[in-house]
Amino acid sequence: METKKKARLTWRKQPNESGLARVGQGPRGAVLKVDGEDVGRVCANSVGFNEYRGWYWTAVDNAGRVPLKNTCDKPVAALDDAGRVPLKNTCDKPVAALDDAKRQCEAYVRKCIDNAGG
Q: What is the C-alpha separation between 35 and 10, in angstroms, rounded?
């Protein structure tokens, strides 16, 4: 009987800006990786120049391709036909804390993987 390898999800903090860009750097977000591939990102919600309120997250495959199934307001079914995480962007519904946004993003990606049998 063959056992499937469980997907490994890890978070990495976004790096600091370098050079002059660091002067206007906003809060650093985080990147969600599945087995080393970027699939999710948490960013600060900008409401003006150097003004941030809350956090939003996006999830999509590493290639940045917008899949056929856009599940923004629908329950997620599984990975799309190419085996990639369907696009979801929550910029219109930011949450107050970085950890809350990370939890939501990770739950979405895990649900995609679990529903696909991975």
A: 8
Q: Which of 113, 106, 43, 104 is nearest to 85 (CA)?
A: 113
CA distance 14 to 76: 27
In sequence order, the 6+-apart residues with CB closer than 8 A to the CB of 35 are 7, 8
pLDDT tens for the 118 residues of the chain, in order: 556 667 788 999 999 999 998 888 889 999 998 888 888 999 999 888 888 999 999 988 655 433 333 333 444 445 566 666 778 889 999 999 999 999 999 999 888 877 766 5
Which helix (H) or strand (E) segment is 102 a member of? helix 98-115
As given in the structure block, the two tokens for residue 47 are 């409401």
The closest alpha carbon to 104, from 53, 48, 13, 40, belongs to 40
Overall pTM > 0.85: no
Q: Is residue 87 helix, strand or coil?
A: coil
